[in-house]
């Protein structure tokens, strides 16, 4: 179901929730930007399976993303980290599950898991590469270096996401939280990584594998 949560001091955001008041309550931090689009179905399917295994879970919209009315270009990684802390408090989360770049905004001090965590530099590099290739196909010549220079000073649109200069700067050095228990893509079985596919897709077997890992191996505090 959908629920409101106080996403920022400026207003509320939506969250997908499976809440039956159980002991294990997992806050899900989504993959970021274009990878979020490709993993949305997978993420909610995993949450549904966790619900069936007796685990509450919550997927908040980050300010600037999905149904949020907040402008994305003003968002920062540190701002999202503060928003995540508010979500943990609001939902009473006991654990965190971070997908890919979501591990960069996971708060310290909470047990949990990170699926194939990625740092900001690698995520930014992939988005820049996609922009350069798209521009080349459209007959425009852009380089990674020139785009990055523009992004640092004025912000940049990458894959339909309008990132502000502070977000660009932060991504260049941001690292995933190291204390989360890492789950490798290979742990989910075959089919390849969904975030590498050209279009959003789903793999029910991988969602089932992730849910089984989480339900069967609680992360210690």
The total domain count is 1
- Determine Rg (CA atoms, Å): 17 Å
Strands, count:
9
* Amino- and carboxy-terminal Cα gap: 28 Å
Shape: globular
Mean pLDDT, to the nearest integer, reads 93
Coarse structural class = alpha/beta
InterPro entries: AB_hydrolase_fold (IPR029058)
Note the main attributes of this structure.
221 residues, alpha/beta, Rossmann fold, seven-stranded mixed sheet, 6 helices, 9 strands, 38% helix, 19% strand, AB_hydrolase_fold
Tell me what you see in this structure.
The structure is a single chain. The protein is α/β, with parallel strands linked by helices. It has a single domain (2-119, 174-216), classed as Alpha/Beta hydrolase fold, catalytic domain (Rossmann fold, 3-Layer(aba) Sandwich). 38% of the residues lie in helices and 19% in strands. The chain contains 6 helices and 9 strands, in the order E-E-E-H-E-H-E-E-H-H-E-E-H-E-H. The strands form 2 sheets. Strands 1-2-4-3-5-6-9 form a 7-stranded mixed β-sheet, sandwiched between helices. Strands 7-8 form a two-stranded antiparallel sheet. Helix 1 links the parallel strand 3 and strand 4 (56-60). Helix 1 (34-52) packs across helix 6 and helix 4 packs across helix 5 (165-171). The longest helix is centred in the first third of the chain and has 19 residues, at 34-52. The relative contact order is 0.17. The mean pLDDT is 93.
